[in-house]
Structure formats: structure tokens, C-alpha cells
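Bench log, entry 3. Co-assembly request; chain sequences pasted below exactly as received.
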Amino acid sequence: MSVTIKDVARMANVSVASVSRALNGHSGVTAETQKRIREVAARLRYVPHNAARSLITRRTQTIGALLPDLHGAFFSELIRGIDLAARAHGLYMLVSSSHGDATEAAIALRAMQGRVDGLLVMSPHADEAFLDENLPIVLPTVLINSHVRSDRHAALDVDDYGGARIMTEHLLGLGRKRIAFIAGPEVNHDVQERCRGYREALAAAGLGDRVFVLPGDFTEESGYHAGKQALAMVPRPDAIFAANDMMAIGCLSALSEAKVRTPEDIAVAGFDDIPMARYVTPPLTTVRVRIAELGEAALERLVRMIEAPEDAAPEPRTVVATELVVRASCGGNGTVRRRA
Amino acid sequence: MSVTIKDVARMANVSVASVSRALNGHSGVTAETQKRIREVAARLRYVPHNAARSLITRRTQTIGALLPDLHGAFFSELIRGIDLAARAHGLYMLVSSSHGDATEAAIALRAMQGRVDGLLVMSPHADEAFLDENLPIVLPTVLINSHVRSDRHAALDVDDYGGARIMTEHLLGLGRKRIAFIAGPEVNHDVQERCRGYREALAAAGLGDRVFVLPGDFTEESGYHAGKQALAMVPRPDAIFAANDMMAIGCLSALSEAKVRTPEDIAVAGFDDIPMARYVTPPLTTVRVRIAELGEAALERLVRMIEAPEDAAPEPRTVVATELVVRASCGGNGTVRRRA
DNA sequence: ACCCCGTATGAAAACGTTTACGTTCCGCGC
DNA sequence: GCGCGGAACGTAAACGTTTTCATACGGGGT
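Structure output for the full assembly:
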């Protein structure tokens, strides 16, 4: 059996109330009593039972993170950013991921009830109705990269559109005229925005009839296949812009296999700037997303919501900047251009 | 205010006991009563308060993971493995990381009290005394890659020694005679074991006097510097074995910068088989550690401990296998050799 | 008709905290 | 000397569950 506050109280010849006060640093207890209680607590190795505490205080010092998956560099970085910021606020992080379908996500969401002070949600299933159905009342929630536009939940997005647009413009600026785009999973909100950036950049350049979208699913293999497809096109594209880095890397393999030179014959660009992007041959031009910062920003936002009184004005939807990272795969010179 | 079990009971004209029974699928409640209660609960969007529940059941359906850091592919994979297995058991994962010193780790450890059913610990600070001091009584605990040898806690290790030894033997088998080793942080248990594997393989080959250990700290930069140092040695090594992949990659940069050919002049090998290893030029020969499997195995072990009755015999210390992955950086041909 | 037993249900205790509210006591000003 | 105020401390309620125990009820065996 675990040692409880009662044991400490008995040993120190005080009431449980005094123990609670002493250990939490509240007033109403003599310095010497406090000292005595602290000593007894330390001797007994007393550690308060958090479930009991949060039952009464309605605080758990924990935030929940609902993620679709944990695969790859993106989530790794996201979690790291969240954890970093959480730690700074003395918060812990309850992680739940890999829910393939909405039912699983719903179960996970409900399991968070009474365990967390707030929620960070990044899930393709998290639409408005889903949240209403499963989210108990007023749990502060921040949506990350969600297509949901609600004024009841805060939202934080990556500037996918801006990043894709500036990349497309960069390729156009290098003189490329036939730019193909490798898309990702259709349901993915980021993909849609990236694709939109690509389309609109072309349209703005008067090349609206040169939109070539190849299918992909974010995996290296799909990028490889898309690369093959691009090679089969007549006339061939002179640039390929993939919706993420892994597909761009797969595409590079397809090109080098076909002895097509990068960037001379076909320029290649990706999106995300995963660590690997610097190390492939040739180094990959891409759009950097400061993922850890995204996580940090999301958590900071959540903390503000948790601490804010009811009446607090809802903050506007926040957009996290992306930046263009030019490397050899598109014939650039290695500069980084930041974009708001 | 949140809707509680009492609200459901009142609305359904039953007692809270019946609601509890109905919702938890216990016997002692008519099928039709159960149905009615379920309907009311759904209508009111009732979600049980987990803190209250675990206060009485002494179960939280949560395991804690105490990690030193979240940086890099290793922890990403580890967490993924843990999460995967946890999800299969209906468990959630409370993550705490980045505790720079023992004090922070202790705070994190204590904060887990009453929040988790078991603990996965991977921390350089987690020695026997530390655990005794801060770990409340009988919380089931699995130590990952720890140097602590205790029969009170379960332990799970990567076969660092075996992996390093087989890699060194492989390099020797290719005819390399002067093999340098780039070490990692001194306190790191894995590093020590890897270094031991390297030393003993050399000793077994009668090359005990050709042990060259260069300092490193697991970062790419330190690998780069170690590469420079290796180049300055007379006579030069004909192979460099880095204690992890990132240092091997940094080393590759140093060599290519100095126009030294890999593998013709100097073979290079790493350890971990991070995703990037396949993509660098030349692709990196390395020792694969199935990190996700390590995480899964650790969690499975923990689950067994949680479910096991007190009297259960302690399982022996488990070692997770590594395998040799031969790629171009040491002149191999791309095979994988498994090792128990 | 009566007893008994199993089943459905309710009342209440318990889990370990925090905190509102009393109570005691001491010192101070009149 | 007396009342009064405030500090120190204790008592007990509250948080939302689960579970033990008691109770009511209905039916079958005698």
C-alpha cells in the first residue's frame, strides 16, 4: 500500500489539512511546523497521488496530443516542439496516435476526458461534427493543420499555400516552363493547400494551362512512380515539385536511374525540409517548415487558452511561416528566403 | 460543469451503481435497463471522469515514458514502437523528456505517481539509488539501455556489443587493417558497449595494438572533426567506424572534402541505420537497430509485469538483436546479415 | 402456502486529495 | 480585566467513480 497524506499527518502529529498546506506552500502554517512536516514527508517518501489531487483541483498539469501517426521526421519534430514548450510550463504530455479511423480517434478523444487540461488535435477525422460529438464541453483545444474553420476552437496552420506558391515562382524564375506537381493523399489538408499554391502561381504567370498533377501518397515509392510517369510525358517537364520531401527523394531515384540529369534536365523540389533533404544527391531544394516551432506555438496557444478566463477574446487563426531553401537539385545556390 | 454519472442516473431513473454497472458491462442489470442507461448516457454525452475512476480502481490505463531527449530518429522510432504496442493494449502514453539533470528527472518521475500503471525509463541518471529514492514503491518499471543491473527492475538492451563486434569483424574481413573508432558521449552506456565490441574484435584478431579511438559526441559536427583527425594520422586508417550514423555522415563530408575516396581509400561505417543512411553518398554501411521493435518489446514486457501477480518470477534481462547492413561506404554489396 | 434462492437494484463506503469553515489560543488595546 | 482580532490548526465536505453490502422481488420446489 502506498503512503498517503494521512500517514504523513499521523507521523507529524498534525491534521491532513496542515500537511496539504505545508507541502503546497500555502499560508497558515508555522515555519517550524512546515519544516517538520516536510521532513516527515521526505522520510516516508510521500508522493501525492495525482489522480486524487486532480479530482478536486480540476487540474491535471497534462495536455493531450492527438496525432494521426508517429511515422517520420514530421511528427518527431512536432512532438519535440510540443514537449519542449510543455516542459517549460511544467506540463506533461499524453500522446495518442495512429488511429486509422474515426472510431478509434473518438475513443482516444474520450479517453482524454478528466486526464488533460487541454488538447492538441491533428487528425484528418477531426471535423466540426466529430469534435462536437466527442469533445466534452469546454476542454480547451487547438487544432493543428486542420481544415476545420470554427470560432469555437483555436487553429494553427502551416503556410502551405504560401510555401508552395513561392517555390513554384522560384522555379518559374529559374526559367522552368513545364512544372509538374506530385500530390499527396487526397484527404490531406496540407496537400490541398500546397497544390493550390502551385496552381495559382502558374495561373498568375499566365501558365494556367500547364498544370500537371501526378498522384502520390507521401511515400518514397509513390514519388518514384510519379518520377517514372513524368519521364514518360511528352514533352517532358523541366521541373518536378513534390508535395513532400520523401516523394521528391523517390523522384530523384527515378531520374538518376533513367540517367536524366538533375537539375540540368529536370529540376526537383520538395516540401518540409526533413533532415535528410540536405544529404541526398543532389541536395534537395525544398520549403522549410519549422515543425518544432509549430508544436511550440500550438502549445503556447493552448496554455493561453487554459489560463484565460471564459470571456477572453478568441485569437485569430495563426499561420506558421515557411521558407524557401534553395539547394542544388534545382540549380540554385543555397540561400534561404524567409516568407511571412 | 461537466455531466457526471449522477446526472445520467437521475435522467434514467436509476442509481449511480446501476449506471456504472451498465456502462462497464457488468452483470446484474437487465438488458433493457442497460439499453435505457446507454441511451441516456449517449444523449447527455456522458464521458466518465478518468481521474475519479482511477482513484478507486488504482488503474490508469496509462504508461509513462521517461526519455532523455526527443531529438533525432532514434527517439522518434522508439516512441512509435511504444505507442504501437500500447495502443494494442488499450494503453495511453505519458511522455516526459529532455531532463538535463537528475533533479529534473526526479521531478518528472515523481509527477508520474498516481498517473501511470508502469514506467519505461531510459535515462542516464537512472541508476539504482536514483530509482530507489524517487520511485514510489512497487511501480512496475522497465529500464531501456541502462547500465543498471538490478533484479528489482526489468531491463531491455540493444546488443551494442554484438553489433559493434560483427561490424569490426566485417571490416577486418574486407582486408582493412587500421580501423579507427569514433566514440560518443562518455557517459553513454551504448557507446561503451560499442567501443568494447570494437576493441575485442580487434584483440581477437591479434590487432589489440591497433586500437584508435577518436572522441565524438554523436553529432554530425563531431564526426566531421573526427574525420579530419583521422586524415591527419600517419599512417592513415583504412577504415573508420563511427559509434552512430550521424557521426559517420559527418565523417563522410570530411573525407569527400579532402578528396579522399570512400570506400577505396577509407571505408566508413556507422551504427543505428537511421533512415538517412541509405540516402547519403555513398550509402552507409551500418548496424541496424530495430528501434521500434525495442520500444514494442519494452512495452510488452511492461504489460506483462503490470498484469503479473506479485509472485511472478522475474524475467531475465532481454537483449534486442542488431544486424549488419552492408552498403557501398565500405565496399560491400548490400546484404543484410542478422545476428542474434 | 411457505421458504428459499438468485437476480435486479439501491444505499453508502471508499479512494486521496484540497479547501471552506470552525475552533482555539495568544497578544494587544481599551 | 475584558473583549477582540488574527494566526494556527483541525474537522469535514467535496470531487466522481467503483464496489460491497443490503434490500426487494419473483418464481420454483416442497
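The mean pLDDT of chain B is 88. Residues 34 and 311 of chain B are 38 Å apart (CA to CA).
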